[in-house]
Every structure is written in C-alpha cells, then in structure tokens.
Amino acid sequence: MTSQAVADPAARNGGTRRIIVMMGAPGAGKGTQAERLAEALELPHISTGELFRAMLKSESPLGQKVRGYVESGGLVPDDIVVAMVEDRLDEDDAANGVILDGFPRTVAQAEALDRMLEQAGTAVSAVPYIEVAQELLLERLTGRRICTKDDQHVYHVLGMPPQKEGVCDIDGAELYQRVDDSAETVQSRLDKQLPPMFEVIDYYADNKVLFSVRGDEPAAEVTADLLQALSSKSAVA
Ligand code: AMP
Q1: Residue 214 reports pLDDT greater than 90
Q2: What is the mean pLDDT of the chain?
Q3: What are the pLDDT digits (tens) for 119-175?
Q4: Distance between CA atoms of residues 106 and 112, nearest Å
Q5: Between the CA of residue 143 and those of 5, 153, 155, 179, 231, what are the distances in Å?
Q6: Closest ligand 1 atom to Cα of 30
Q7: Active site residue: 12, 17, 140, 178, which one?
Q8: Catalytic: 144?
C-alpha cells in the first residue's frame, strides 16, 4: 500500500480535483446529503447503489450477476464494484471531482480507489462520516419510501410523510419501498455491512482525511455542518 503518499492527500491533489467520499451506515442519510453537496459544490454525485439499481432495472448481464447480492442486502464482490467505479471516474464530468456515495464499502475497495486515483495523480480529499445511532437506522430504513419517477425524491412514513399517502409531492408519481428496505432484509443488511464500514472508517482515520458530523439533526443542518467542515478543510489544504 502507498501509505506515504496517501498520508498527504492534499499535496497530491494540488487542490484541483475534489474527491469526497461520503461515509455512513445504510439509513444515515448519505444519499440525501451527497445529492445536496453535489449541487452546492457543482460536482457529480456517484452512488454505486443507484448504479446497481439501474443495472437491475435494465436486466443487463451484469445486473443478473449482482441481483442476488443487492436484493438480499449483501455486498457485491469488490472486483465488480471497483471496475464499475473506475469506468465512472473516467467520464468527463468527473474531471473536477466527485461525491462518492456508497463506495468504498470495504478496505479492499478503499485501497483500489487510492490506487486508481494515484494513477491519475490525485487522492481522496475528504471523508465526511455521517454518524447516526444504530437504533435509529432500522426505523429510518424500513420507513423509507422513494418516488417511482425520480429516486432523489425520498420520504419517510413517519419523519417526512408525503402530503398524500404513497404519492410523491413533487411529481405525483407512486412511491415504492426498496426490496432491501423491507423489515426482513434490513437487519441482515446492517449486520453484513456495518463491520466492513467500520474498517473503512479506520482506514481513512489513519489517512487523516476523515471527519464526522451528527446525522440525527434535520437534513438542512447536516448539510450546513458538512459544507462548513469541507470549506475549513480546503482552507487548511
Ligand atoms: P445503497 O443504495 O448504497 O444502500 O446500495 C444498495 C446495495 O448495492 C447495497 O446494499 C449493496 O448490495 C450494493 N452496493 C452498493 N455499493 C456497494 C459497494 N461499494 N460494494 C458492494 N456492494 C455495494
């Protein structure tokens, strides 16, 4: 591993390409916050979960391969995820940086990301960790409902219900529950995904790019905390 170089990511980045890696348990609000940061910082939001869900919908051969993992709340094998992210990072819109959401989820993925960025002369700039108590995650995940027309429109049956039950306020489309948000799958998803996530957090803590924000506040406050921490980080860099 290239620990020497990674220990000084800001120097390698030269401040030009911002690679922001969102960390947080399923249900911590990573996706919502990644979308808000993407808008504020004018960077593309890359969600590996969304890329996989799109693959499942299109029923591509790769989609068939990953379906079992995604629907049961397990992790897709590292080589598949890494190849997908590598291709996505090569796209033109990623030239100035990206907000990564849901990747890396294992230390092997984090190391692969470091390697691919190093080849491009950059490194991870910041790793915001959205912390939410584990007791809250179950409730957040099982209550989550998503718009069938635009999956950025996310509701919660208790915390943020739509005006009309089961219908998106913004475009009137029906809401659905992700297969892996069902009560039966959520606990095993957390059991499978939290231990490797904590290893990735340790990995980034060692590399000094990690900082945490409270995720149990209203979404707008979490965004404000994230933006403030990111701007003070880039001022330091
Ligand atoms: P998410 O929308 O981030 O909760 O991701 C949905 C599902 O996609 C996860 O439960 C995994 O099955 C799969 N997935 C997404 N990102 C990764 C990743 N980095 N590594 C392995 N599996 C992933």
Answers
A1: yes
A2: 90
A3: 999 999 999 999 999 889 999 999 999 999 998 899 999 989 999 999 999 999 999
A4: 10
A5: 43, 14, 8, 12, 33
A6: 3
A7: 178
A8: yes
pLDDT at 234: 65
Enter the tokens of residue 5: 């170089």
What is the band of 59 on the pLDDT scale with cuts at 50, 70, 90? confident
Which residues surround ligand 1 with Cβ inside 6 Å?
Answer: 26, 48-49, 52, 69-70, 73-76, 81, 102-105, 109, 180, 189
131, 212 contact by CB (below 8 A): yes
**Beta 127-131 vs 210-214: how paired, if at all?**
parallel
Q: Are 200 and 23 in contact (CB under 8 A)?
A: yes
**Rounded distance between C-alpha atoms, residue 93 and residue 19, angstroms:** 13
Both structure tokens of 57: 């919908």
Per-residue pLDDT of 65-122, as tens digits, reads 999 999 998 999 999 999 999 999 999 999 999 999 999 999 999 999 999 999 999 9
* Ligand 1 mutation pick, 70, 113, 116, 177, max ligand atoms within 8 A of CB: 70
| Residue with CA closest to ligand 1 atom 5 | 49
115 belongs to the catalytic site: no
Q: Tokens for 196, please give them.
A: 């490797």
